[in-house]
Amino acid sequence: MTHPVNDLALDVIFRDARSQNGYLDKSVPEVLIRAVHDLAKMGPTSANCSPARFVFVTTPEGKERLLPFMSEGNREKTRTAPWTVIMAYDLRFAEKVPKLFPHNPGAKDWFANNAEETAIRNGTLQAAYLMIAARALGLDCGPMSGFDMAGVNREYFESQEGEMQHWRANFICTLGHGDSSKLFPRSPRLEFDEACRIY
Question: Which of 8, 11, 91, 111 is the residue whose CA sits 20 to 30 A from 64?
Fold first, then answer.
């Protein structure tokens, strides 16, 4: 039986969480990034297909490689963030389904005709899980769509050898300890009756 988390957890994950525009000069150890992934990977996907792939960028060399693909308004936050994640998905995720769904190894064939659609949908779910996990473990996030997707795909995936050549970028997200002085006022949200219907 599950129980609701307390209000503090809801504040950290949702109510007080903001999309960051800048970061404090405070390091984030790799062990914490690994813990974020280990928590996020527990989120559900279709037949546990787990198509998300994550490229974590933290070194100066890694940032210099990524920055040319970021839109002008997103370059500084990417440069100053301790970590930036290329949230991607694997077009050949089904090859790992026999390992991930062992009670029905033949489930890999379920995705023969809808692999990209499944990868995008479930990969996006997993990327959201990663952001929630990061917030739950004390990090701030800055998700971004402003980047040259075709360029990132060429640089990081299509030009690579091995399985990474079948990965594709979805969106990009910075991780670290946010600088509250660089936040914009919170934008409005839709109310229940504007966004929802009950039948």
Answer: 91
